[in-house]
Amino acid sequence: MKVPQKDYDPDSFLQYVLDHWDEMEHEEGSREELKAICVLTSRLDWVESFLIQGMKNVKQLGEMFEITLPYIDRFEIRKDATYYAHYNHERNLIIFYTTIDLTEGFKKTAEKIINRTPNLWNLWIRPALFDSMESLILAGHPEMQISYFSASRRFSSLIPSQIRPSFDRSIQYRGMDGSETLREFKYYYGVLPTVVEYTMGDIVLRVNGEGIFTLKTANRQTVDLFLELLDEIMDETLSLMKTAEELRFSSEELKTERKILAIPCVEPGEIQMETKLTMADAKEILKSMEEEGFSAIDALIDEGSLSLSATVMDSNKGSVFDISASESRITLIPKYRTSFDSFLRFFAFITENIDQSATFKKFWDTYE
Question: pLDDT of 87-101, one tens digit each?
Fold first, then answer.
């Protein structure tokens, strides 16, 4: 997808794309779908993470940035992935618009940068929010249907399942009764949605749990639905992000007559759960964390009343924090190079595998 080199704001950019959708040149010379990839950050210098040394791969077009990232596809052919990005400082949100394919082009370019850069994180959609989004859509569009979904479950998940809970599961379903079918699969097989596609007339919008919206029909109605759902998601996510950003480790100087003492100051966070952890659950958490990019160091489990403590390293972002867990609480203690995205990734891991109803607050706020 390429647009003329002139100044745009988000509205004029989207209007240009919609007005010229049928004639625009898409990657690989074939029609691709318009995607909106949503990323959280409070970094004002976020665009510098996408600069490539020796290349003029970032151009400012008014309020938009054109970002071109090269990659080698599976056929060893060099290609460019083009993104048009806008940063909303008040919402701490970047939206990357693109037609690049998600399975290869995105994974080899922007996703790699987002995954390794502290304080950049794909807009995570909590599984329970899919229910809120469906209710919101049906309130305004009662004829809307879920026409496709994918859902999954890890064998060690504590999310309730009526049938054979101790199996890994991955499900894809296509049919105009998707809403009812998803509820049935969630109840009987304990799966949680990762992708949901909403369909109504000329509107077809696919929502990915990592904040990727695919506008399968590029028209004003689909854009309006995307923006409406984004508002719903951001209301909760900004609150979680604010909490995570306020967790920190620092030191203050205390002067005495003989010396200057460094006094550590810690602002921890706490995840509270309705699900009660057992000893077996605690051991399984330590194992499953590895698959999510978290390494547990010096883990200790007290086999009396449940007590788990460990130092956790986020191998993607390089941050380090301690955890201290009991049956229904996990305290997160910042330690080294911590960033909000590491804490939220860990909270997402707990929510998707242990307790959908888990809450995340600053430690002292939970006892007010």
Answer: 999 999 999 999 999
**How many Cβ atoms are within 10 Å of 187's Cβ, its own excluded?**
13
Under 8 Å between Cβ of 119 and 182:
no
Residues facing residue 262 across a β-bridge: 253
In sequence order, the β-bridge partners of residue 323 are 310, 332
Question: Considering the entire predicted model, what is its pTM?
Answer: 0.91
d(CA 259, CA 264): 16
Residue whose structure tokens are 């993104």: 83
C-alpha dist (Å) from residue 28 to 1, 2, 212:
10, 12, 21
Whether 333 contacts 346, CB under 8 Å: no
Q: 302 in helix, strand or coil?
A: strand
Sequence-ordered list of residues with C-beta below 8 angstroms from that of 88, at least 6 positions apart, any chain: 94, 95
The tokens describing 242, both together, are 């604010």
25, 2 contact by CB (below 8 A): yes
Which helix (DSSP H) or strand (DSSP E) does residue 344 occupy?
helix 340-353
DSSP 15-82: HHHHHTTTTPPPGGGS---EEEEEEE---TTGGGGG--TT---EEEEBTEEEEEEEEE-TTS-EEEEE
- The predicted-structure confidence for 269-293, as pLDDT tens digits, reads as follows 999 999 998 888 888 888 889 888 9
3-state secondary structure of 234: helix
Q: Token pair of 28, please?
A: 């690989």
Q: How far apart are CA 68 and CA 56, in angstroms?
A: 9
- Candidates 87, 102, 201; CA nearest to 144 is 201
The per-residue DSSP string of 240-270 comes to HHHHHHT-EEEEEEEE-SS-EEEEEEEE-EE
